[in-house]
Amino acid sequence: MSDTPATTIVFLLFPGITQLDFTAPAQALSRMPGATLVGAAATLDPIMTDSGFAIVPTHDLQRAPQADILCIPGGHGVADALGDAATVDFVARQAAGAEWVTSVCTGAFLLGRAGLLAGKRATTHWGYTHLLPLVGTEPVKARVVEDGHLVTCGGVTSGLDFALTLIARLRGDTVAQAIQLAIEYDPAPPFPGGHSDRAPKSITAGLRAHVYDAAAARMEAALRA
To answer: Is 132 exposed, middle or buried (0-12, 13-18, 19+ CB in 10 A)?
Structure first.
């Protein structure tokens, strides 16, 4: 409809991004009336994801339009991105003019490095929530956390929950529900343990030892650098 407001949604892209952190909310948000999606990266070269394939940015950091919604995905590449001044400056600059500032998974730490989480309530992937106080944030155990115009969400698949929550805020529940139905987001996982609070202790301990102890230590070192 002609009276639907235009909404520019800018996603930060960086090497080592978790592709579903980006593609899941992008899929839902792209269907929101009036939405235009932008993928901004340091250059226009393809960005290698954690899934072994690349994503092609639409803009570089200098030429990206001002976001109405800024979204920072996560991934193991966040630890390196924390030390890149141009990336952190882009996040801070875009956030200053955005109506909504958001993150998926460990993207929250890039918001934190840009000074956007101090005194706020936020969440991130369960393997990293204990690090949120390092950026002055009150950790909240929730799949989606709203604090004013700041919206953060947990790990990977929670990006869909975040996107639908935001669509409901912007276009109403009926639009959000229609998009949820269109993408057939009707979770019925084969196992009940999708969060460390509910997964078998042996599974959680094994995954921490195999992946998240080292990953969280690397993230902590980058945050303290």
So the answer is: buried
Residue 105 is among the residues annotated as catalytic for this protein = yes
Note the CATH number of domain 7-189. 3.40.50.880
Dump pLDDT digits (tens) for 22-77.
999 999 999 999 999 999 999 999 999 999 999 999 999 999 999 999 999 999 99
Q: Which of 10, 71, 105, 216 is catalytic?
A: 105
Beta bridge partners of 152: 103, 145
| Residue whose tokens read 């929730």 | 142
pTM value surpassing 0.70 = yes
Strands of the sheet containing 150-153, edge to edge, are 59-60, 35-41, 7-12, 69-72, 100-104, 150-153, 144-147
Tell whether the model's pLDDT for residue 1 goes beyond 70: no
Report domain extents, the chain: 7-189
The per-residue pLDDT for 192 is: 86
